[in-house]
Amino acid sequence: MPFEDEKIAAVLNEWEEQQRNHNILNGPVEAEGREYTFALRSFFDNRLHMYVPESFQLMSKSMQKAKYPYEDRPAVILTNGRCEVDLTFQHVDQPLQDDWIPELVDGMKQMIRNIQPTNVFYEQKIEQVNGKRIGYFDFKSPALDQPAYRLMFYLELDGETIIGGFSCPYKSYAEWRPLILQMLQTIYTTTPEGGASQ
Length: 198
Fold this sequence. Notes:
The chain is of the alpha+beta class. It has helices at about 1-20, 60-65, 100-115, 175-185; strands spanning about 30, 35, 40-45, 50-55, 55-60, 75-80, 85-95, 120-130, 130-140, 150-155, 160-170, 190. The protein is about 25% helix and about 40% strand.
């Protein structure tokens, strides 16, 4: 009866998957065999807020220099314990308004495509999140050791540009992609006085 055993195992696996939490705001979520609890973190003088994995820490300066060797590396680089999954933020002194987000996203995607034509692009989207327009695109990027999954996102803060990034090994993208898309939905900004910005 090996065939029946396989059927029972498949039903049990499906039931376990259905019982698993997939919502980052409802408790721990599993990715790569580890549980991640998400918590609200604030950046840029408490002006930009987003739910991120609690266990993600600021990447060490030595690891930043190795992984992001260029001088203009992101101001904030959060990473998991193995420094394989990163979330980055850069506040760029470039004017930006919500209405300009689609043009910025198109331009940045084209620039990345021109620099690395072997990238495989997936989705490009502009969404309204908590009163803010957020644009993003994601892609598979070749690398020396293994391909990477990357998602770039863009929004306005105080009339200037925020560039966000997410990366993980491509082999883990199916687990991480739904999580980063949920994380984007938690972004909100506040004014220097602490009120919600529009």
